[in-house]
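Fig. S4 source data, part A: sequence.
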Amino acid sequence: MHLHAVRTHRSADDFPRREQLAWKIAEVAIDPVAVPAETQAMVINRMIDNVAVSAASVIRRPVATARAQAVSRPSPSRGAKVFGIDGDYAPEWAAWANGVAVRELDFHDTFLAADYSHPADNIPPLTAVAQHLGLSGADLVRGLATAYEIQIALVNGICLHQNKIDHVAHLGPAVAAGLGTMLRLDPDIIYSAIGQALHLTTATRQSRKGHISSWKAFAPAWAGKVAIEAVDRAMRGEGAPAPIYEGEDGVIAWLLAGPEHTYQVPLPEAGEPKRAILDSYTKEHSAEYQSQALIDLARRMRTRIGDLEQIATIVLHTSHHTHYVIGTGSNDPQKFDPDASRETLDHSVMYIFAVALQDGTWHHDRSYATERSHRPDTVALWHKVSTREDPEWTRRYHSRDPAEKAFGARAEVTLMSGAVIVDEIAVADAHPLGARPFGREQYVAKFTGLTEGVIDDAERQRFLSAVTALPEMAAGALGALNLRVDRSVLDQAPRIPPGIFG
């Protein structure tokens, strides 16, 4: 792994293309290094995970809306698949619909470092293009290994959140690079596609602030769709703003830390296997990742606390990111509002900790139900919870050492009697270093549970047989990765009014 210094250069400097980050990413994308077996296995795990959470969200309104938009773009010949239904569709719109389905419940994989990411957001756009072009399973695996590598490298090296830029700005270049690997494109094409994709996917974090709407699910799908279109244009010979990161009026100078700042982005050397996917982790609970460990901590502490009515205050000592993004450091009153959207409650660790204490579990629907958030005892307990930044938790959050990197907190529960109950947790139980790490068995169990009532056993087994053989899947056979949902289930989705596209 090599650290690349990335900073602003004046136009007069004649900064050579070979030194630009977009070009260095393109060089990683064209490296023909073999994909390690453990990377292939984890790609399969994440594809199972994505399909599981898509099944759980298939009749939710944002997913139905994206599906309605996609099906108005049928492909006249071979096309991409839209989750849950038959037919062939334009790949960029299939990626759009499937990206929303994957992201809607905030329930798939994550990588946290200098910034945030959900790198499995790369799977829908790459799969859609692979289906459309009749590629093989090995092609798709190669592309996804690159996409994960690039997104995780950018998240390791460049903090977007500090400058209030949404994390999908790292997703666009990752998808473009992954498509470049998958399609075996020349580096100049990948370079242009990365520049276009980044230019078009930089947006503010208001989508995850205050009242959080359904756009939170659409934003990554938008980045994937944009990246597909960017690659298509670059393949036709169109260029991009350059240098997109380092230019005098580029992303670093005006959207990030400014022209005086230097970022350090780690990228693999030529011939170095792509293993970054192994550094990411999935979710056992349908909630923002930084609350995963706190749900597990609440489940553990509830027995020790006993009568929850006796709680006076709960203080969660945690990292800067947890405090300011999903904690009281955000200063978002919406995070205490019983009428807040599901997306907002998903980003309120105060709500999440209170409900997990009361229920001893977490559910992707029941834990967010309107009647659940309005329960008087829940509202009372919820308002007793606050967060504080602890420098040690912040340091561990940013540590490069996997053994000490942590996304947890120390909970101090003060009872009305004055007694204080303290416990802490570093990582979620499902984390590779947690109490119950996720392996293939747990991914399959999550898939089985979330598809219950959505598909039958035969379809469940058909999909699992197909996806576990992904590296050997023949060219043109990737349509088998689509799950077919019974029409009676899809009919339960909200009726979506027509828009411009019908």
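Fig. S4 source data, part B ends here. The chain has a mean pLDDT of 95.
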